[in-house]
Design brief:
single chain; 235 residues; mainly alpha; Arc Repressor Mutant, subunit A; Four Helix Bundle (Hemerythrin (Met), subunit A); 2 domains; two-stranded antiparallel ribbon; elongated; disordered C terminus
């Protein structure tokens, strides 16, 4: 292991064992380099790497701080992996999303507050109006789709799970836009599937919510690999 990697690991250990906490400012460069036993140039490279990982944040003229270390922030780096593999592996990412989002939706069924259930209905109403327009704005529909799913998964009770799904779903936008533009029935099928998920949430039924969420993502997944062999069912 090189000196830069060693410095990176040492700073990570300082965060893990509590010597550095979220939001805390790092010691000045000279002192921290001496503490780690590395050259200042080595420390700078280690800090740059940790900034890229969203572990540290450099504030111009103020120094370097530990970030909030929230799951959403740290897992955002996963989006790069999805981006570079998306064209060849969108189906694989959707497969993972199907497994995770189904469980997150089931968890949300007993947790999501009434106000947000009503907001989900408003999002669906808006999406149906967009879909009814002679010229469908697919990017607008995708934005409403993302809002719909993000609101649900934000209430799964597990911020790590929610963050992973958010990164997964956000990186399959191109595939979903393509599906909507090439399959005339995809838009209306998606809206029916969303309504089925919403009804399951309104009923506070985790099993039904899990099933409909999985069927919905499966539809997009199969559109990338071949004809769909089944339709989601209504309640």
């Amino acid at each position: 292991m090189g000196v830069i990697e060693t410095a990176i690991d040492t700073i990570k250990e300082m965060i893990i064992d509590g010597r550095l906490r979220p939001g805390q400012k790092l010691p000045v460069e000279k002192d921290l380099a001496e503490q780690l036993g590395v050259a200042r140039n080595t420390l700078r490279e280690a800090v740059r790497a940790l900034v890229a990982m969203r572990v540290l944040q450099t504030r111009q003229g103020d120094g370097t701080y530990v970030t909030s270390l929230s799951p959403g922030l740290l897992l955002d780096g996963m989006s790069f992996v999805a981006d570079i593999h998306l064209d060849a592996g969108a189906g694989q990412f959707l497969h993972v999303r199907r497994i995770l989002e189904a469980e997150a939706t089931a968890l949300a069924a007993t947790r999501i507050p009434g106000d947000d259930l009503a907001h989900l209905g408003d999002l669906l109403d808006h999406a149906e109006k967009v879909a009814a327009h002679p010229t469908i704005d697919h990017e607008k529909l995708i934005a409403l789709d993302q809002d719909f799913h993000s609101l649900i998964t934000s209430h799964c009770g597990n911020p790590v799970l929610a963050a992973v799904i958010q990164n997964m779903s956000g990186r399959t936008v191109r595939a979903r836009i393509w599906r909507g533009m090439t399959d005339p029935q995809a838009v209306h099928r998606t809206l029916r599937e969303h309504r089925a998920v919403h009804r399951a949430l309104l009923a506070r039924d985790p099993d039904r919510a899990r099933l409909h969420a999985a069927l919905h993502v499966l539809g997009v997944e199969e559109s990338l690999t071949g004809p769909r062999t089944c339709e989601s069912t209504d309640d």
